[in-house]
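S1.2 Input.
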Amino acid sequence: MTRILIILSLVVLCSKARAQSTIENILGDIERNNTTIQALRQSADAEKIANKTGITLSNPEVEFGYFWGKPVEMGNKTTIAVSQSFDFPTAYLRKGQIANSRNNKVEFEYQSKVREIKLRASEICIDLIYLNALQSEYKRRFEHAKGIADSYKRRYDVGDVNILDYNKAQIYLLNATKELESNDVERKSLLTQLASLNGGKAIEFTDTVFANSSINPEFSQWYTQAEQNNPALAALKQEIEATQREVQLSRALSLPKFNAGYMSEKVAGEHFQGITVGLSIPLWENKNTVRYAKSRFAAYQSAEADSKLKYYNHLMMLHQKALGMQSNVDDYRTKLKSFSNTDLLQKALDKGEISLVEYLYELSFYYDSFEKLLEMERDLNRVIVEMNYFQ
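S1.3 Output.
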């Protein structure tokens, strides 16, 4: 008996490890094949290019002039001018820093959206494990019900049982059959949803055992790791850095702008050429731009504080919920094994100590309890999957 228990324990552990590996493989396939992720990648790349656009020097200007003199004896005049205007040098440094921060933000936002898709896929996998386990259980119940129905049909044919018991056995088989069929419909529906997330490619998923995921009882340690790995918070942080740089850029743009160039003029055998230098004095154009940039920076700082508070409270709720659910599942599973009467009920039915109605009624308690345990395990793993989404 000890050897059998050890073997069964190893089988369960291997099944849990395989389930975790299978889900990870499926998520890898979805990340490669999902059409939404592909579109998000292209959109993010395009936005990165846009962020790097317009941060360099403005275009140089070239002017050419040809003027006819009057009277004709004066001759004609030709002018050529080439000029380049530019902001105060620190403005270009700030523009580059803002573009880098915005590109980092775009990448973090892309990662956050990918995680949302993978979270949905993980939840479907958890539901599929639940339905696959139910399918296996319903098949066992169907075979059991079929055995009872066949037995009572033979007994009815020889007059050993009455029509009432025969009908009860047939109804029991009918219910078992429809439970099996209905569950299979739901299971195939989820497989279709999973295939849709995988770019239309079908995925075979037959795992029936939930992965064994440990929960760190120390919330502060787990939260610190989760906060560091959250792309949504990282994206907000990059936006704050960008708005801070915009304050500095606004100050740089409020400084004088320069213009330098070359000019040539030819007229009546004379030729003049040289350099030109200009200065733009910012008196009115950039009014209130620094104040506006400071206001945006303060607003994003407030948004970050609000997001972190909501994030902290949500994760604390998830962590506490997961620990409580884990304790309930472990306790329920242990007691269900201890209080199971299925073997005793079968012996009592075979010996005629209880009627078929009593047997089915008592057996339904175990069936309901087994399904309740599966539901609890499914709900626990859905919470764990959501927790992993933040890591």
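S1.4 Remarks. The longest helix spans residues 90-157.
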